[in-house]
Amino acid sequence: MGSREEIVAAAAKVMREQGYAHATTKAIARAAGYSEALLYKHFKDKTEIFMSVLTERLPALGTTLDELMETASDTPLAANLARLARITLSFYLESFPIAVSLFSSRELLATHRERVMSEQRGPDVPLVRVVEYLGEEARLGRIRADADLEASASLLLGACFQYAFLASFEDRVPAPAELDEWAERLTKTLLVALS
User: Fold this and answer.
1) What is the mean pLDDT of residues 27-56?
2) Is the pLDDT confidence value at 1 over 70?
3) Fewer CB within 10 Å of terminal CB in the chain, N or C?
4) Cα–Cα distance measured from residue 65 to residue 62, given in angstroms and rounded to the nearest whole number
C-alpha cells in the first residue's frame, strides 16, 4: 500500500472516531505516519480526503450501481433490489458517523456543500444513480411503466439512511444477518409498488 492509500485509510479511522469536523489534516497525517506536507502532495484539502474516504474506503455503492446497470437483466429484480438495499445500508452505516459532524457548523457545512456540489459529488448523486438504475429496470419491462422512480429511489435510500441513523444513535453495530433481513423486507415492500 502506498502513502496515498495509507493516508485515506488513516483518514477513515480518524474521521470515524472524531467526525469530519474534528478530524484535522495534522491528525490524519500523524495517524498515517506521514508529514502534513506529504498529505498535501496527494490531496488538495480535507474535503478531497473525505471524498476519497467515501469512494475508496466505504462500501462501494457507486460500483454496485454500475454493476447493476450493466447486468440488470441477468438477475431477478428482487435480488437486484435486495443487493442495492444491502450495500446502501452498509454505506450509510459506515458514512453516517463520519459525515454527521458536517452539520455541527453552518460555515463548515456551507464550505463543504459548495465544494462537493461544484464537483457534482454531493449527497444527491446516490438518488440520481438509483433513479437511473430503476429506469433501466423499467426499460427492461421489470418495473411498471407508471411507477414513480424518484419516489421509489427516495424510499429505498431514505429507509436505509434512517436505519443507519438509528443504529448510530443507539451506538450499535447491526449483525450482517440483521442487515440482510432488513434489505429483504425493504425489497418486498418496494416490489409491491414497482411490480
Assistant:
1) 88
2) no
3) N
4) 5
Buried b (16+ CB within 10 A) or exposed e, 116-147: beeeeebeeebbebbbebbbbbbeeebbeeeb
The fourth-level CATH superfamily of domain 1-57 is Homeodomain-like (1.10.10.60)
Which residue did the predictor score with more confidence, 89 or 124? 89
Domain boundaries, the chain: 1-57, 60-194
Q: Tell me which residue has cell 463520519.
A: 98
Tell me which residue of 87, 71, 53 sits closest to 156, measured CA to CA.
Answer: 87
Q: Are both 1-57 and 60-194 of the same fold?
A: no
DSSP string of 30-82? HHHTS-HHHHHHH-SSHHHHHHHHHHHTS--HHHHHHHHHHHGGGS-HHHHHH
CATH fold of the domain at 60-194: Tetracycline Repressor; domain 2 (1.10.357)
For 185-195, the pLDDT digits (tens) are 999 999 999 98
Show the cell assigned to 41: 502532495
